[in-house]
Amino acid sequence: MDEWIIYKSLLYAFLILAGLACLAIFHITVPYGRHTRQGWGPRVSNRLGWFLIEFPALLSFVVIFWLSPYRSGLPAFLFFILWVGHYVQRSLIYSLLIRTKARKVPLSIIILSVIFGNWNGYLNSRWLFAFSGGYPRSWVTDLRFILGCGLFIGGFILNVYSDHLLRRLRKPGENGYKIPRGGLFEYVSCANYFGEIIEWFGWALATWSLPGLAFAIWTVANLAPRARSHHRWYREHFPDYPPHRKALIPFIW
Fold it and tell me: pTM value?
């Protein structure tokens, strides 16, 4: 069967599953982090778990980049740097900096994430470096690319900084949770999630592609329900939790 037909089928299925996943996660809180609970099978350490969750999207993207015909040129190089930069930070740096080493991630969640990461990495890299026909050099001066990269980098910085603020809440050896303070956490419970959503909508704009938009939609489908769960959890466990804070979007929701 022609790869393009397979690719389109996988892309449309990816979009449909985003909506189904969003509905499911709004009703079933994914059991990792503070929401960990029994009944989801064997579990592995947080550090190893997060590495296994994030690394497939990095590996699949890099492998397909090298196997695809349109990997030369400045736009392709910059797309490669943005994606690899994000996933090196998430799979390697973030995993090593985790302080809640005593907590564990269900293996079932890791397996689903491995499937998702490879699927997503394939859809985005194969479009960028093959099916798009290659982006012309002039694309780097296009307003969509410039604004998209600005959003991506801004969202990345917000995400990394917010994760830093969360880690700083714990002293070495501590595993408990505290009320986040500083940065955008003064306005929302999940500033790190908000940063990641901005990041991938920036990617969708910079690539101006359906696979990029599909990933941004998936990011919202995954993180918006989880932000709501986090927000409720904070309110239930901290009577003095700031009443003005929203779950994810400052001043709105």
Answer: 0.94
In total, how many domains does the chain have?
Answer: 1
Angle at which helix 210-237 crosses helix 3-27, to 10 degrees, equals 10
Q: Is 133 left (phi over 0), alpha (psi -120 to 50) or beta?
A: left
The predicted-structure confidence for 171-192, as pLDDT tens digits, reads as follows 776 777 899 999 999 999 999 9
Token look-up 């389109």 returns 8
**Residue with structure tokens 């990792």?**
32
Domain ranges, residue 43? 3-237
Answer yes or no: is 191 within a domain. yes
Task: Find the distance separating the first CA and the last CA of the chain, reported in whole Å.
Answer: 45
CA distance 49 to 107: 8
Cα 35 from Cα 226, distance rounded (Å): 10
Q: How many helices (H) and strands (E) does the chain have?
A: 8, 2
Would residue 213 count as lying in a domain? yes
d(Cα 65, Cα 151) in Å, to the nearest integer?
23
C-alpha 54 chain-centroid distance:
9
Q: Is 205 inside any structural domain?
A: yes
Sorted by sequence, the CB contacts under 8 Å of residue 153 that are 6+ apart come out as 202
In a domain, 243, yes or no: no
Which tens digits make up the pLDDT trace of 225-253? 999 999 999 999 999 999 999 999 999 99
